[in-house]
């Protein structure tokens, strides 16, 4: 007769899950006390009333405002595309220098990885605020922000993909006397091309969303228009902008998913 394994007391009463839940509640309480957050303020009469008024206005979109949204929307897509493309191009040599199966000198890899890690830790909103102050309001600040953001992300994704490739073709080319450039072109690129294109499409999708947010701090695009309508309490126009952003983001996501399936 087969006997089922006996569960421990911890497993029987789900003590571990309960402990995690209580820990999360405790951390939320500590965070609330530390930051001086009063949760009841989110549910008082004035807040709920203002929330109802806002949604009432947004559920009556000013569809005539559509003509003003098209140009900033195209700027947003251009910002995301140019920033993603330039950032990816710059990231390629850094990814190669970070890969242990391409560069055998440890200190070179270490320095390059530190640079990429430092770039990746910078928030996109901080970058947008800095470059808006340097370059002024407009799409140029947004492109530079997305370029740096893309560089940090693509460098990491690509060097991790390079380190997981089959070493057989690399060793075969080395055995016949191929140089580093030939090894990269004929052994590395064919193995990572599909992964590279998939990561590029994913980063472009992320940058379309990010360009909306960074535009809110003056980096151009539809986010800047969103800020103007909110500051002027034109929530009927804000609703049109949000609807357009939703349609574009969902459309790009479906397109990217289709292309990634074709590349798989």
Word description of this protein:
This protein has 264 residues and is mainly α. Helices cover 79% and strands 0% of the residues. The protein has eleven helices and no strands. Helix 8 (167-175) runs antiparallel to helix 9. The radius of gyration is 25 Å and the shape is globular.
Spans of at least 5 consecutive residues with low confidence: none
Quaternary structure annotation: single chain
Give me the count of strands.
0
SSE pattern: HHHHHHHHHHH
Which characteristics define this entry?
264 residues; mainly alpha; 0% strand; globular
Summarize the structure.
By secondary structure, the chain is mainly α. Helices cover 79% and strands 0% of the residues. The protein has helices at residues 9-12, 15-35, 45-58, 66-98, 106-120, 124-135, 139-163, 167-175, 180-215, 222-231, 235-263.
Secondary-structure blueprint of this entry?
Blueprint: H1 9-12, H2 15-35, H3 45-58, H4 66-98, H5 106-120, H6 124-135, H7 139-163, H8 167-175, H9 180-215, H10 222-231, H11 235-263
Helix pairs in contact: 3-11, 4-5, 4-7, 4-9, 4-10, 5-7, 6-7, 6-9, 7-9, 8-9, 9-10, 9-11, 10-11
